[in-house]
Amino acid sequence: DEIRAFAKEIVEKEIEKHAADGLGRIDYAVASGGAMVLKHSEPFIRSSKLSRWIAGNVHSGAVKILQPSFGQPGECFPLKGDTGFVDIKLRTAVIPEAITLEHVSKSVAFDRSSAPKDCKVLGWLGSEELTEKMNLLTEFTYDLEKSNAQTFNLVESKTAVDTIRLEFMSNHGSPSHTCIYRVRVHGYEPNLA
Amino acid sequence: DEIRAFAKEIVEKEIEKHAADGLGRIDYAVASGGAMVLKHSEPFIRSSKLSRWIAGNVHSGAVKILQPSFGQPGECFPLKGDTGFVDIKLRTAVIPEAITLEHVSKSVAFDRSSAPKDCKVLGWLGSEELTEKMNLLTEFTYDLEKSNAQTFNLVESKTAVDTIRLEFMSNHGSPSHTCIYRVRVHGYEPNLA
Amino acid sequence: DEIRAFAKEIVEKEIEKHAADGLGRIDYAVASGGAMVLKHSEPFIRSSKLSRWIAGNVHSGAVKILQPSFGQPGECFPLKGDTGFVDIKLRTAVIPEAITLEHVSKSVAFDRSSAPKDCKVLGWLGSEELTEKMNLLTEFTYDLEKSNAQTFNLVESKTAVDTIRLEFMSNHGSPSHTCIYRVRVHGYEPNLA
Ligand SMILES: [K+]
Ligand SMILES: [K+]
Ligand SMILES: [K+]
Fold it and tell me: Which of A82, B10, B69, B131 has CA 20 to 30 A from C74's CA?
């Protein structure tokens, strides 16, 4: 009975985390919270369904990067080639602490060669992109053998940013395209700290 | 091995409940089952995206109250101020037993001051709202410290209702608006009992 | 502490499987992977919302068969009567190994008499339906007492198919209609084996 209560407690805690968007961690890049994709490298168009473009040179499919994937292959935004980037305007300015890059789970994927591999994260404040104002927040490698949602800590800083660039310099083998399933940005609002 | 089998059994049962819409309990207010929002107090319009209105003075965003939220902040219907109401036409007439009010989980919320606090539930049968026919089913307080989906038992009765009003008389601090993530109504169909 | 670590390991594994589309198994019939419904028996139209038809005599609601149901009643495609079929074009040609038929979970269902019961699965290669090329892959009975997603192994074969027909010869009691929540097809791509 003690073990039963004990096991139940662990299960409930883990399911609660799972139900809380998988990580149970605030995501300043989630579309339903007001974040949006500002810009991206050339998309990889596979069908007419994905060929619509919306204002500001942002593809209508780009929002998928900021939405849950529900364990479904294809719930991603495909970019052309094995290098590229996406710029994300966060819900509000935050002191960023970590970034999560999610790909489709190995167990349901048709092919994972389109997963990003070596990545770089830049952040800045303000709508203007100015090379001198874009801070390097981290570099990381997405590992196909680990969990499908991988969280990377950013360099410690007290500088608030409201825009994040995820840049991928390689992928896991596909010469034609790279798929971004979801990007999340964790941190805290300076005025609330 | 015994413990393993035992733990697995608990886990499977809890995940099954989680997969069954979180509670594993029939919801007569779910949109996919045919329920709908009939009426509501003034919405809190934040963007042009939410500014469309549909037939019968019901905002196009109101249906979110009757749909899953998937652990996503923003998957709610925002009403103006700290008092207000929503009227929900159930899928069919039922003897109501409980109501569940869900807000976004603490661990992924940007701000929970917009959560409803002191609430009242009324129920009646028939499309006409007549004060004398609207029965008080319960009063409750949504507690920010508890689980994000909170179920409250209704007063025992044998009276069937097909419309429910959730009225909030206060919220957790926001002067501008109150967000309703999801309302579920549990009970049984009189003819099936 | 040993038990805690042990329980946590089991929980994480089970949640991972749950998060990976419930089964953690590749589905060649998933809509987001490019599969589609090619043809079906007469739909059971309940509302004007479902009355739109799209190209090729495929109802606009038919795609629900190839999408997640999220524990929501109604996230299905209803066909008229207690016999009928759906033809599914898979994402690509595969050696099929198993099929999963999912209905809504007992704990959240309003009525399960519309669940399919005795079923037959046929498979063939090529867009042409030719009786002599349609192989019987299995016959099974969907059991209302078991888990809501039931997987059935197919007869072993080395023949690739790119189209699957799920035919139901009876349901669990509804004279008016039969609801298909989701069909998944598991197997492997011949060129990848
Ligand atoms: K996504
Ligand atoms: K919702
Ligand atoms: K479905």
Answer: B10
